[in-house]
Design goal:
By secondary structure, the protein is mostly helical. The chain contains 17 helices and no strands.
Length: 405
């Protein structure tokens, strides 16, 4: 007796929410672990007897670990079973957050933070490909949107959560609680997340082959320009909104951004598989319009809140859209391409901090909207011209060949 085709179709289209949310929790831990020190600088500086600026380097070395490790570790673990790699990253967070919580040595703390960043670099190169392997091609975009939902939650709540925990239980216990959360996640992954084999040696592509695959470079070009624009504004949001009298309401501004970003992920989940190109172009165009709006009305608190909400909508689905486009373009080299994305994305964050600082010192926050506009027009142009490879028109066809799927 055979199962009727409609029933098979319904079963095939069921999203594995438990497994995908475990990936989302992994992303949440990556971001919160990175941002936690930012809300705890006074407590950490007192606890380790260092200045606040030295305590801030805990964020720097974390980012450095992610940048340096993502590509080599993604390549080195291509042949490993996928759940083994995922568990290795989570255990890394457990170990290095625990060391951070217990360490009384600043040097040891920095080493632990560096290797926590290494774990994050490997995790980010893995999560998107993992989410895509759990579902059929027509649902890959929706699956990735669910797996990425932890990112905007962590971005909007990470620093406030760290500050609140630091005041409530102390900075060491805050890191210990993160370790406790990873223990729960390890059990969650073992119970809910399916395992897949790694790639055989014949399926693996060299770094250069992946980079020169049609579509990969345009997508990475959009990543660097879009994220550079986004992070200039996000990093220096406090001085930017001060002109509108919102210096003491930055937390509310970021909350509005976070809520809008969550809504943006939901919208993206509905659009990414059928209208990826349109969603990318509309997001970039809308962010560009917001930049002009900010340039004209940056002294208005109402304008700031409206603009931040639209900006959050455009950013919420960015990770899903760009990683989907990159993985589609890279085919069997998706994991390596996604590790490149980690490096490019984090480099854009670092560059935004430097460029934004220069702009702030030399020209003031009034220069931000117009620099953003220039970057977004470049990004839009790259995406618009990548109509064959990178951001093709129409529904996704899933140009992916992933081992074991």
């Amino acid at each position: 007796m055979t199962t009727p085709e409609p029933q098979l179709q319904q079963q095939a289209e069921r999203l594995p929410f438990g497994a995908l949310l475990a990936l989302a929790m992994t992303g949440f831990i990556c971001i919160v672990t990175e941002t936690l020190p930012a809300g705890l600088l006074p407590e950490i500086s007192r606890g380790l007897d260092i200045s606040a600026s030295w305590a801030g380097q805990m964020v720097t070395v974390y980012a450095l670990g992610s940048l340096l490790a993502a590509i080599p570790l993604a390549i080195a673990t291509q042949g490993w079973r996928r759940r083994t790699v995922l568990l290795a990253t989570i255990i890394g967070f457990l170990l290095f957050n625990s060391i951070t919580a217990l360490s009384s040595s600043y040097t040891l703390t920095l080493v632990a933070r560096f290797f926590a960043g290494v774990s994050a670099g490997l995790a980010w190169s893995l999560l998107a490909g993992y989410a895509r392997r759990m579902v059929s091609v027509p649902l890959q975009g929706k699956a990735l949107a669910i797996a990425m939902v932890g990112t905007p939650i962590a971005l909007s709540l990470g620093v406030p959560l760290g500050t609140w925990l630091g005041g409530l239980v102390g900075w060491r216990m805050a890191f210990a609680l993160m370790s406790g959360l990873t223990l729960v996640l390890i059990a969650w992954v073992l119970i809910k997340v399916p395992d897949y084999p790694g790639q055989s040696s014949s399926q693996r592509l060299a770094l250069g082959q992946v980079f020169t695959t049609p579509g990969v470079r345009p997508v990475l070009g959009v990543v660097v320009t879009w994220m550079l624009a986004h992070n200039i504004l996000y990093t220096y949001i406090a001085p930017f909104v001060s002109a509108a009298g919102l210096a003491d309401r930055v937390d509310v501004v970021l909350l509005v951004f976070g809520i809008a970003a969550l809504l943006g992920i939901w919208i993206t989940g509905r659009l990414v598989d059928g209208h990826l190109r349109t969603a990318v172009l509309m997001s970039l165009a809308s962010f560009a319009v917001v930049s002009v709006f900010f340039g004209i009305a940056s002294s208005s608190a109402v304008a700031i809140f409206v603009g931040v909400f639209v900006w959050g909508l455009t950013f919420g689905g960015a990770a899903t859209l760009l990683q989907t486009a990159l993985a589609d373009s890279a085919g069997s080299g998706a994991d390596v391409a996604l590790s490149m994305n980690v490096v490019v994305w984090n480099s854009a964050i670092a560059a935004a901090g430097l460029l934004g600082g220069v702009l702030l010192d030399r020209f003031g926050v009034v220069s931000f909207p117009w620099v953003l506009l220039a970057l977004l027009l470049i990004s839009f142009s790259i995406a618009l011209n990548a109509r064959v490879s990178g951001f093709p028109a129409g529904a996704r066809h899933g140009n992916t060949v992933v081992a074991g799927h």
